[in-house]
Amino acid sequence: MLTQTLRGLERDGLVHRTVHPEVPIRLEYQLTEAGRTLREPLRALEEWSITHLGSVSASQKSYDHTNRPPAAATDRDK
C-alpha cells in the first residue's frame, strides 16, 4: 500500500524518487516544489483535525448509536 501511495504521489508530481543501485536497493523520496506547496494547507488540516477531534468523535458515536442495525433474534427469543 505504501508503494502504491508513493508511486501515485510521484505520478502526480508531488514527490521525486531516486533509486540508489546498491544491494539491497535503496530508494529516496523528496518533495517536489509542487509537493512543498502542500505543507501549509496540510498543516491547517492537521490543526483543524486536532481542534475538532472531540466533536467529530461525539458525532460518530451519536450517529452509530442511532443508526445501528437491530440486534439479530436468537433461538431463545423465538
How would you describe what is shown here?
It is a single chain. This protein has 3 helices and 2 strands, in the order αββαα. 0% of the residues are buried. With 78 residues, it is of the alpha+beta class.
The CATH topology label is Arc Repressor Mutant, subunit A
* Name given to the CATH homologous superfamily: Winged helix-like DNA-binding domain superfamily/Winged helix DNA-binding domain
User: Low-confidence stretches at least 5 residues in length (pLDDT < 50)?
Assistant: none
Strand arrangement within the widest β-sheet reads 1-2
| CATH architecture heading | Orthogonal Bundle
Multimerization state: single chain
Helix content: 40-55%
Integer count of domains: 1
Mean of the pLDDT scores?
93
Overall shape: elongated
Q: What is the N-to-C order of secondary-structure elements (H for helix, E for strand)?
A: HEEHH
How much strand content do the residues show?
Answer: 15-25%
Query: Major sheet, described briefly?
Result: 2 strands, antiparallel
Separate helix tally? 3
Q: Topology of this structure?
A:
Layout: H1 2-11, E1 15-20, E2 26-31, H2 33-36, H3 39-66
Antiparallel strand pairs: 1-2
Q: Which descriptors would you attach to this protein?
A:
3 helices, single chain, alpha+beta, 78 residues, Arc Repressor Mutant, subunit A
